[in-house]
Amino acid sequence: MSLRPLARSLPGQLRASAGAIRTVLAMRGVRLVAAASLVARLPKGMVPLATVLLLHQISGSYAIAGITAALVAAGDAASTPVQGRLVDRLGRGRVLIPTAAVHVAAVAAVLMLARKGAPAAAVAVCACVAGIGMPPVSGSIKAIWPQLVGQDHLPAAYTVESLLQQVIFLSGPAPGGRRDHGGQRRAGAGLLRGDGGRRHLGLRSRCGHRSA
After folding, report:
1. What secondary structure letter does DSSP report for 212?
2. 82: nearest Cα among 125, 131, 42
3. What is the predicted pLDDT for the residue at 102?
4. What are phi and psi of 140, to 5 degrees?
5. Which of 6, 69, 135, 156 can bridge 20 by disulfide, Cβ–Cβ 3.0-4.6 Å?
6. Rounded to whole angstroms, how far apart are CA atoms 196 and 37?
7. Predicted confidence pLDDT, tens digits, the chain (212 residues)
8. Are 134 and 103 spatial neighbours (Cβ–Cβ below 8 Å)?
9. 156, 21 in Cβ contact below 8 A?
10. Phi, psi for residue 2 in degrees, rounded to 5
């Protein structure tokens, strides 16, 4: 099979995809929601690596650090189905904001306990709570796209969604991996900014729910 026809059609396909993405981003409210969801999902990329580095720093053991990071992931996985049911029953705003508050409070507890030299087990428990409180941002934003762009532009909207996910996983570990003395404060500030993004998404969904 010759690759020449594919190579010839590729530039046109890329131009068409880029045009569809520009059309979606030009729609009302799309850029604001996309930016808020990007910030809100940064902890997904930040927390695992930051947890491993922090626990290794206070315990000296990568085994403890790895177990704690696994507890974060397990807490997130265990709570996601329950959060999904609550979103269906109560609406996104009533789930995103409280879970974001739980997540940020648990991460703040992790940072405080680590700075005070608390036992690794106590830090691990708080890290697990942070995983349980990880808000269902990805699922919520996927459900918002049809309301924002309509059915005709959904493929381009989901392309934007995929690009956002890649940005999160590529950029999230960078602030989480900074190990200087101010790193913990910056990580906490970043998570608080993520909470602000979640609050924006929750408030938007609540307003949309009322107007529907």
Report:
1. -
2. 131
3. 93
4. -65, -40
5. 156
6. 10
7. 455 654 555 566 667 777 778 888 888 888 888 888 888 888 887 888 888 888 888 778 888 888 888 988 999 999 999 998 998 899 888 998 999 999 999 989 988 888 788 888 888 899 899 999 999 888 888 888 888 888 888 888 888 888 877 777 776 666 555 544 444 444 444 444 444 444 445 544 444 444 44
8. yes
9. yes
10. -80, 140
Which residue has tokens 């690794």? 120
Q: Exposure pattern of 4-19 as b/e (b: 16+ CB <10 Å)?
A: eeeeeeeeeeeeeeee
What pLDDT, on the 0 to 100 scale, is given for residue 98? 92
Q: Which helix (H) or strand (E) holds 62?
A: helix 62-90
Return the domain boundaries, the chain.
Answer: 45-170+181-211
H/E element holding 200? helix 183-211
pLDDT of residue 166: 78
Residue 137, H or E segment: helix 137-149
- If phi > 0 it is left, if psi is from -120 to 50 it is alpha, else beta; for residue 106 that is alpha
In order, the DSSP letters of 6-46 are HHHHHHHHHHHHHHHHHHHHTSTTHHHHHHHHHHHHHHHHH
Full-model pTM: 0.67
Give, for 58, the enclosing helix (H) or strand (E).
helix 30-59
